[in-house]
């Protein structure tokens, strides 16, 4: 029995952004577990079983992976981006804490990946080049009032911001409200970056001032970055560079 | 003249955490520019010139890289971690904005990497599994009062936190004060992770409650993670798992 469980980040989409560490784990795995579109990114091969499941069953998926690991299998749970940022790692540890005592002694490793906000920031320039925060805008797992509170405090702290899961079909109104809260707290000027499907064939990047940002510019494939009060835009032919200087003058 | 400039993240140290995209850029480069220990991580080969420079000359280094790019060279500026997180990308764009107009039209790309906080979080479990912020604790480029304000607001927002550059020989007192501010705002209980030299041969990871955290536990090789009010510790043989659940109950 030498099973292990690796919770691995596949990055934003491009195979050139998958770390060799993750590729090595996939090459040694007996079983891969994850949400359907992420498992679809893993090459099939003999001796590898792919277990794709729908979204919103994260804890079931985690328990399944832990059971297989306990049986001696070499299991990779795949997430897009980084598994520790609004992805499967927390779900697996929730399952460990609530599960049988012996799961605590399993060989569980988290393999980091390029998370969406960093891939998006790289495409735009360096908008997260100074202090910043990352907020999941989905209110599936927390009250909406807490999201609004965090948005207001993030503006007060003058963080640049990255928003994951900004908008879905089942909750179209949240992001509308988030933009209203931001405009009320931060004014109209600061740049907003809508980065969709970064590093994939259908990648798109759009930079607009907050006043022109509309809810329809985001969907679940989009990560949204909002500059701080010091974020700069460098105009040029083609897409501008957006960056937040390292220095803040007193 | 087909010069280009890639600002590339080498990840925290282990070659298995360097993306294939970054390796490909290094394989095509004529010149590599960066801080001495990061340039030392690039393999020498014929046709590649290494330009290592001391710390605190980021803008000089950026200008040098931009000049070489304008001359038609294929230049990689290397950072550890991710270049967009408290690293060289913002410095390059500062130099572009302040430099000659023609620099704006250079072929400049940012190649993301595994940033220290995500490598550290992966080693510990999933402490950044819910909303979080990243703060550079150095007051070289911003007033200390702003750092304290951000710490207080981050506690009020109940973010998990990642601190870069927590402590250096030239400013030993800042981190002492940061721990005081955190204890006053957040109480004594929440877990603090001191992650030093993650993924390197001398890696160390230490998890202590805030009340037992001391300034000497950090140096410039350390990234410090602080849990939110909901962060959990799973005790086990060996190092505990630390994770922040996805769910917050109203």
Walk me through the structure.
Chains A, B: It comes from Marinibacterium profundimaris. Chains A, B: InterPro entries: 4pyrrol_Mease (IPR000878), 4pyrrol_Methylase_sf (IPR035996), 4pyrrole_Mease_sub1 (IPR014777), 4pyrrole_Mease_sub2 (IPR014776), Cbl_synth_CobJ/CibH_dom (IPR006363), Precorrin_MeTrfase (IPR051810). Chains A, B: This is Precorrin-3B C17-methyltransferase. Chains A, B: It is an enzyme of class 2 (transferase). The structure is a homodimer. Chain A has helices spanning about 20-30, 35-40, 60-70, 90-100, 115-125, 145-155, 175-185; strands spanning about 5-10, 30-35, 50-55, 75-80, 110, 125, 130-135, 160-165, 190-195, 205-210, 220-225, 230-235, 240-245. Chain A is an alpha/beta fold and about 250 residues long. Chain A folds into two domains: about 5-115, Tetrapyrrole methylase, N-terminal domain (Cobalt-precorrin-4 Transmethylase, domain 1), CATH 3.40.1010; about 115-245, Tetrapyrrole methylase, C-terminal domain (Methyltransferase, Cobalt-precorrin-4 Transmethylase, Domain 2, 2-Layer Sandwich). In chain A, the strands form three sheets. Chain A has a five-stranded parallel β-sheet, with helices on both faces. In chain A, strand 9 and strand 10 form a beta hairpin. Chain A starts with a strand and ends in a 7-residue tail after the last strand. In chain A, about 50% of the residues are buried. Chains A and B meet through helix 1, helix 4, strand 5, helix 5 and strand 6 of A and helix 1, helix 4, strand 5, helix 5 and strand 6 of B. Strand 7 of chain A pairs antiparallel with strand 7 (about 130-135) of chain B, so a sheet runs across the interface.
């Amino acid at each position: 029995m030498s099973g292990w469980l690796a919770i691995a980040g596949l990055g934003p989409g491009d195979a050139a952004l998958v770390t060799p560490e993750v590729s090595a784990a996939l090459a040694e795995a007996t079983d891969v577990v994850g949400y359907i579109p992420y498992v679809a990114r893993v090459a099939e091969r003999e001796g590898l079983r792919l277990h794709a499941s729908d979204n919103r069953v994260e804890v079931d998926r985690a328990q399944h992976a832990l059971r297989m690991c306990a049986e001696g299998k070499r299991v990779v749970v795949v997430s897009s981006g980084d598994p520790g940022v609004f992805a499967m790692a927390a779900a697996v540890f929730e399952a460990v804490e609530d599960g049988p005592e012996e799961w605590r002694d399993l060989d569980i490793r988290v393999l980091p990946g390029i998370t969406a906000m960093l891939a998006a920031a790289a495409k735009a320039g360096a908008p997260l080049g100074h202090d910043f925060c990352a907020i999941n805008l989905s209110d599936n797992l927390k009250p909406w009032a807490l999201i609004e509170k965090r948005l207001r405090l993030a503006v007060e702290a003058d963080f640049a911001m990255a928003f994951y899961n900004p908008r879905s079909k089942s909750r179209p109104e949240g992001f509308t409200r988030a933009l209203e809260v931001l405009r009320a707290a931060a004014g109209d000027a600061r740049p907003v970056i809508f980065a969709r499907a970064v590093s994939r064939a259908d990648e798109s990047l759009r930079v607009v001032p907050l006043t022109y940002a509309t809810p329809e510019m985001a969907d679940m494939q989009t990560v949204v970055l909002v500059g701080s009060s010091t974020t700069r835009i460098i105009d040029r032919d083609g897409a501008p560079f957006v960056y937040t200087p390292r220095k803040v003058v007193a």
